């Protein structure tokens, strides 16, 4: 019965769309999706967590221990007048439900509807503008596949429009409400207030300003305070600038971008470039970030992915009740060469470094300063040629070494339920390195 309850909403969506065919000149149904799954183990045969020092993201090659499945059914209707309607959902399962915002089951592993929205375009009064409402990912989200991290991520329930021509730029605007389940259960400070401490984000994008490769985003957040974080910020604002290079920084073929971000209040710290994560931020929490993200096409079967960022935080604090914040800085840099040897066999290599300097880190002996180096080699079976070709089946070996001062920061060691850092599997033995092995399949379509 539980499985039936999960499938029924999708069936009703499809049935509703089919019933509308009589009113549409054209009807189309497509299914897209993503999947990754595999096993990660240490050299002694024990299952292992992924490795990373950052709150979000990690160099992912040979470093993923979870299963994630996304199915994205999409119905497109076109009326005889030319109006186009797109109805889309995103049905997701992930063994670590850490980034979703409606993980309702106690085990956090159920199927989730992370999108469910409608988009209308080619309307008679605005033929080039796409209007949307519902629950969706922003069309302007930006991520590094190599680091498995969206450094621009605005998801939620709301509405807006994309691609409005305002003369000097193309303009997108949207409002999003984003609240994770555990926080939405918190009572407002004033028990007379109605509702819960929802986070609202206004997102304004100016793209290809003056026909240049420059995009500019302005963001504003608001959220009522709650008794879990007395004195936390109730508002925030941020700005993101993007320069989209021609090819790989103008040097060779491929793609690349430079990103500069600033946030204050709710838009700072772990919420920089995102919405919904700033519950413990202070009014004067500030963050700055620089990002370099690109893939170079070199030739002779070689492509190289690169990713780096530097972030500086002022008056930062954990999701805690500390009265004052502290300083934190972090940076990462990594390169993933990809060599297509035959049409269906490739070699992938990755070297990544992460560095954390947290002035009030609750780690080994109160220290929180040091780095992590990770090196991976991954023979890969490919469906077709190229870095982005999927499906892929990879076997891999990874060697990682870290400084003792950040041992307890390794991914999987922070207990969000108690806001404490414990001793994870990697640091329990006192070692500061590991040799991991695994196999993984990855698909998108």
From TrEMBL:
InterPro entries: G_neg_Bact_CarbUptk_Porin (IPR050286), Porin_LamB (IPR003192), Porin_LamB_sf (IPR036998). It is a multi-pass membrane protein. Residues 1-24 form the signal peptide. The keyword Acyltransferase does not apply. It comes from the Bacteria. It is found in: Cell outer membrane. Its main location: membrane. Keywords: Cell outer membrane, Ion transport, Membrane, Porin, Signal, Transmembrane, Transmembrane beta strand, Transport. Belongs to the porin LamB (TC 1.B.3) family. This is Carbohydrate porin. It comes from Erwinia sorbitola.
């Amino acid at each position: 019965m539980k499985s039936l309850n999960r499938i029924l909403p999708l069936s009703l969506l499809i049935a509703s769309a089919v019933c509308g065919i009589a009113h549409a000149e054209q009807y189309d149904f497509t299914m897209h999706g993503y999947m990754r799954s595999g096993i990660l183990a240490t050299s002694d045969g024990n299952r292992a967590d992924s490795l990373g020092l950052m709150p979000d993201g990690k160099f992912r090659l040979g470093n993923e221990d979870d299963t994630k499945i996304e199915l994205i059914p999409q119905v497109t209707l076109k009326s005889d007048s030319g109006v186009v309607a797109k109805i889309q959902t995103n049905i997701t399962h992930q063994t670590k439900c850490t980034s979703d915002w409606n993980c309702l089951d106690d085990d956090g592993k159920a199927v989730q509807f992370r999108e469910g929205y409608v988009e209308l375009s080619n309307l008679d009064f605005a033929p080039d503008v796409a209007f949307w409402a519902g629950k969706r990912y922003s069309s302007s989200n930006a991520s590094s596949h190599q680091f498995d991290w969206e450094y621009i991520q605005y998801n939620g329930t709301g509405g807006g429009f994309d691609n409005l021509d305002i003369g000097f730029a193309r303009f997108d605007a949207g409002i999003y409400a984003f609240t994770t389940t555990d926080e939405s259960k918190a009572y407002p400070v004033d028990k007379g207030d109605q509702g819960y401490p929802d986070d609202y984000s206004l997102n304004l994008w100016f793209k290809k300003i003056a026909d240049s490769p420059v995009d500019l985003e302005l963001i504003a957040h608001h959220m009522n305070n709650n008794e879990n974080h007395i004195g936390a910020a109730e508002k925030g604002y941020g700005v993101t600038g993007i320069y989209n290079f021609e090819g790989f920084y103008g040097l060779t073929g491929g793609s690349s971008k430079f990103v500069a971000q600033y946030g204050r209040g709710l838009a700072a710290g772990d919420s920089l470039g995102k919405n919904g994560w700033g519950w413990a931020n202070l009014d004067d929490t500030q963050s700055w970030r620089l990002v370099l993200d690109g893939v170079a096409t070199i030739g002779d079967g070689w492509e190289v992915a690169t990713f780096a960022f530097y972030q500086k935080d002022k008056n930062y604090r954990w999701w805690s009740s500390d009265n004052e914040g502290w300083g934190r800085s972090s940076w990462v840099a990594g390169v993933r060469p990809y060599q297509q040897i035959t049409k269906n066999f490739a070699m992938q290599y990755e070297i990544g470094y992460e560095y954390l300097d947290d002035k009030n880190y609750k780690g080994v002996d109160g220290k929180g300063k040091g780095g992590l180096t990770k090196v991976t080699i991954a023979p890969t079976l490919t469906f077709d040629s190229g870095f982005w070709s999927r499906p892929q089946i990879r076997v891999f070996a990874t060697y990682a070494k870290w400084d003792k001062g950040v041992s307890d920061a390794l991914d999987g060691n922070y207990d969000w339920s108690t806001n404490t850092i414990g001793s994870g599997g990697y640091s329990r033995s006192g070692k500061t390195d590991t040799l991991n092995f695994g196999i993984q399949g990855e698909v998108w379509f």
